Amino acid sequence: MKLLAKTNRYYLLLAAGLFALGGIVLYISLNWALRNEVDEELLDQQRALTAALPADSQRVSRGPRPGGLPRPRWWGSCTGAPGGSRGCTRP
Prior knowledge:
By secondary structure, the protein is mainly alpha-helical. It contains one helix and no strands. The chain has one helix at 2-52. It is elongated and about 85 Å long.
């Protein structure tokens, strides 16, 4: 009975080690494959969008616009004073 228990213990440790190694290999390979596919798709979309743009609009700013984003038309003119909507007029 001791030999059977020892053999089972070795098989269990071997199976656990192979399972852990297989999980790590699977994670790395799926991560690599998904990253490559997403990169290819993004590059294809970039090429298609670049080809669709007119020649004079090729300059694209990668940074934020100075002054931030424009306010929506319905925002009205707010003074920025604390207190919620006080000081704001809506059209």
